[in-house]
Amino acid sequence: MTEPRNPGMSSTAPVHPDATSPAVEMDPVEYTLRKRLPRKLPKRRNDVYVNMKTDFRAQLARCQKLLEGGGHREICVHGLGLAINRAINIALQLQTSSQGALQLAANTSTVELVDDLEPEDPDEAGEPMTRTRNNSAIHIKVFYPDPQ
Amino acid sequence: MSAAKVKMREKKMRNQPASVQYPSSQGSGQEGGDTPSTGATGGDGPSDIHRSTDRQKKHHHRSGWVRGHQRDGGSYDKEMPKYITGGAFAKARAAEVSAMLKAVTKTTGSSHVFGALPKHMRRRAMSHNTKRLPRRLRDVANRLREKSLQAGSKKKKEQAKCKSRKARRRHGNLLLEFNRRQRKNVWLETHIWHAKRFHMVKKWGYCLGDRPTYKCYRPSYRAMSTHCLLQDLSYYCCIELQGEEDKLLASLSQLTSKEAGPTFAAVLCTSGKRQGSVVVYRAGLYPSQPLGPVTFLWRPRTQGSTHRQLWIWAHPTNKQDLLAELQSVCQCTEAIVPPLVPAATTAETGPTPEPETRPEKTPEATRLPGTKRKRNCKDAGEPPAKKILGDGTRSPTCPVTWRSNSTGIVINDLTMEIVRYRLIGPQSHSVLAETFEAATDCDERNKSQTSSLWWPEHCKDESKMNLHRQQADVFHILKDIYSTGELPAGTVLGLAVDDPRLTLPTKKVKALPSVKQTQEVDEAEEEKRRELMLRGVPEHCCQSSLWDQSVRDNVTNNKMSEQELNRMKSEVLVPGSRLSSTPPQGRVPVLLVHQPGKQVGHEMNSWGAGWDLLLPKGWGMAFWVPLVYRGVRIGGLNMSLKHSQNKGIPHFPHDYPDCPAGVCFEEEQEAELLNKFKRRPPAKRTNYIKHGCLAPFRCPWQQLAEEWELIAMQTTTRTDTLTEEETTSRPDDSVAKPQSRFTVLSIDSKHTPRSLQTFNILHMNRKSLRLLSDWCRPTTSKGQRRCRVGQAPPLDSSAARQFLAEHGTSVVWVRLSLPSKGKPELHAAVCVPVAEDLRLLNKKLDGGGPQEPLHKNHFKSRIKRKKKGAKKAATSSDKTDGKESDLPNLTTSTENPKSSSESSADLIFGLWPDPLPSVTSHCSRVTLGWVTQGDFSLSAGCGEALGFVSVAGLLNTLLDQPAEHRGVVLLRNPASLQYRLAKINIEV
């Protein structure tokens, strides 16, 4: 894939192509850019990873189900890159629909992403490169406050 | 009298003495006079001895007892004999009696003994168990049964009969039987495991599991996308090349082209760090004659030596061609006959050159490689029937090694020498990490003495142990990785592991990743993990002892048997605990090769990534069962097809119609589908003629490419003369116009016989593919950013013409996704939408696309006529032979001028007979190509299809389509009239 992926179409981790580190200056003709998936961490039942591919309402309904039907006191909504907006949106919607019963606690972090650059020169002398770049992520804890 | 009756009568008369005649034979003139009168006495009444005796007899009858119905008894009186000659009379009667006896003893018609039993005494199982018959019939029944057994199946299970089950199941006998049964189709080491659980198919000279007998389509998919799916790929053939690096590369470069992406010489691959894959062509014939895709692996360099080792893994259908091609480019013609009994004979039999004989050419020798090395090495005290490891079906004298005098390259056929398992799924590394433990160091006291085993020797070398420790370190880090897709694609890791049977859990457990939370991980480990993810496995860690023939043989020969292992386990103090020390022969060198997941396209990135596990032969089951006990799913051939389908890559040999193996596969598939089709009664078959489907069982790519080339030529010349406005302002017109031309084309194409294959697939000519891929996309869809507009020339007629000049007759691999409804099937047609269809798309009608009008079956009358003719022939040919009568009939049916070219025997109801009319213009929508894999995609949640379309056709279509609807096509299943709108994607 030669051109930056359409952010709206990426699977789990929408990323901005502009966020590349300035250290690696590459010639787009010589290399093919391949993005690896972001590193995953073990997922609990009450973790919700938000993406841009699934319908917004479906993701919201999923969160609501976890809080109401699922019996969880708290859930974590994670969003990476472009999906940060959506994660915030979901959290706020949850709060308003609960008439203030829910509280939010947001954390931000930086996620390291890996890109592979495959050389395409005809004499095949180029070393393939890997570069890392950083992207922002948000982790919002949505929870019912303790009664006392 | 019908023919059957005549036959019956002849049969009856065969045993009659010459003197006895049945009344019906009127032909014998002598009797003409008197027989009619004796009608009542029927069968054995009259004789032809003497008229006089006859008369006497009648007289005698009259005076004595008279039997039967006699209408006018007086008639006898007239011919009453006056006297009887005793001798002649007795003779005649004797002949009659003997004939009668013969007729009685000989059973005619159905010769079942049960016929002798009244109906109420018959029982169902009598034919199986003769003891259920009354005793008087038993002997006859036994005899009959034996006879039928002999006749039906020539000495079927003759041997098994004489042995008891116990004897047959005895180990040695069982192995003999197994070896006999795999003479034709070789078994993999996991065959028996698979045969108990899978539908087995005989393919490519192997017995392979196709799909499990239990329902697991969806669970298998889930395993691939969330956990792990295991497959036995040992049937893939490995060819080893050894020689100087530059010479190897020089010879191999003839087989590939740099246009199609990285070749054998790619820097990353030659270092041995990564596995590469490449499409191989016949020497110097890129891009016209491809052989098929192969994967290859270089052995990492050893210091100060340019001698390299290369493994090329090819599909078994591909192997023979590849081997021949490799031999020719490397000039390896000298076959080295393997020494027959290496242990017994002198040190080493020199390479005896076998002049010009290519034993590999014979089909059985080709795919039945493998040596009986194991058998040879063991001493003669062993029981004769040994389980054959590798491929025992080939004679041990068959050469597997070829050497070249000029280049010094040695080709080695390692088929069935290395076991290959594939683990697919994000958790495959955790399955591996849980199953294996890096080999433990051997004891101190063992180090001093020499050992015949490889591991103690290996332990003595400090540098090797250092390497082993580093490899073990890398292997430990694997546990900290959550998903297999996080690793660099194609990474290789060499390792020596303990026998995995030692750590076999008592119950099946599901291997899960043990990823620590970031807080717990210390800095150094985290750094190592990052290093692994970024750079992959360091180069020296890719080395493995599996590359050494001697080590492989040593490990195979010294494998501890299951029995011995169980005995050792039973002697452990605490039942169920681990053995205190690993037995010295329990270390195996393995090679782990990472398989990249989905790399093309935007969605489902790195789906289906996994690891390949390479093992020395003989250890297959020892590794298989422990892997199964880690909760993986097992897939067969069916699942590998689905795997590549979800990855969006062509599957070999299904989707390589330009390779010899692909052509062969298509023919087989057509025959199979046709047979299946013919098994249905004609009224219950799909009438493909009426559905407008010309070739439902195959895809005439050749014809398609040629027709489109002609169309493209005509349209380009037309656009030259006309102004540009035509393509833009009058889309209806431009679509409609070519259609008028097609009729002309169709006549043309009928007359040109095509034997030479000229079409080719744009395999990986990346630049062209990328350009085409850019053109396919709608330009104005939101969110689509085209950052490199400057480089990709926008699609216009001149750019298209330039492209077509290069790839006019090519077909291109595309993925079609159906956004709304529809499940594409095999050989569904990809068609060009007309302007109204695109308008339909705007309205977002859920009812789907347009409908194809029902076609008329012009062949119906011809088939009927043929049938009628055949019937007439049957009735008219009473006395003559059936075959002779058929021939003139055929000629009458072929008098029809239209069908003069084809033989009417080819006519099958519902199928278009062979010379196809124009495939592009047959239906109301112009055909672009066909689907070779289509199904409901569980990963996309909608119908998805993979197939080929003609490049010329695609470009023409794209030119005619408005920019916002670029890449919209129609898809129609062969057995349906409904078109579905689909989106075309070319993924690079």
TrEMBL record, chain A:
It comes from Scophthalmus maximus (Turbot). Belongs to the histone-like Alba family. Component of nuclear RNase P and RNase MRP complexes. RNase P consists of a catalytic RNA moiety and 10 different protein chains; POP1, POP4, POP5, POP7, RPP14, RPP21, RPP25, RPP30, RPP38 and RPP40. Within the RNase P complex, POP1, POP7 and RPP25 form the 'finger' subcomplex, POP5, RPP14, RPP40 and homodimeric RPP30 form the 'palm' subcomplex, and RPP21, POP4 and RPP38 form the 'wrist' subcomplex. All subunits of the RNase P complex interact with the catalytic RNA. Several subunits of RNase P are also part of the RNase MRP complex. Pfam families: Rpp20. One of its GO terms (biological process) is tRNA 5'-leader removal. Residues 1-23 are annotated as: Disordered. GO terms for cellular component: nucleolar ribonuclease P complex; ribonuclease MRP complex. It is found in: Cytoplasmic granule; Nucleus, Nucleolus. InterPro entries: Alba-like_dom_sf, Pop7/Rpp20. Component of ribonuclease P, a ribonucleoprotein complex that generates mature tRNA molecules by cleaving their 5'-ends. Also a component of the MRP ribonuclease complex, which cleaves pre-rRNA sequences. This is Ribonuclease P protein subunit p20. It comes from the Eukaryota.
From TrEMBL, chain B:
Residues 610-701 form the POPLD domain. Residues 89-168, 177-243 form the Pop1 N-terminal domain. Residues 1-79, 145-168, 341-395, 846-902 are annotated as: Disordered. Residues 16-28 have a biased composition (Polar residues). InterPro entries: Pop1, POP1_C, Pop1_N, POPLD_dom. It is found in: Nucleus. Residues 69-79, 355-364, 377-389 have a biased composition (Basic and acidic residues). It comes from Scophthalmus maximus (Turbot). This is Uncharacterized protein. Residues 342-351, 891-902 have a biased composition (Low complexity). Residues 1-14, 153-168, 856-871 have a biased composition (Basic residues). Keywords: Nucleus, tRNA processing. GO terms for cellular component: nucleolar ribonuclease P complex; ribonuclease MRP complex. One of its GO terms (biological process) is tRNA 5'-leader removal. Residues 811-988 form the POP1 C-terminal domain. It comes from the Eukaryota.
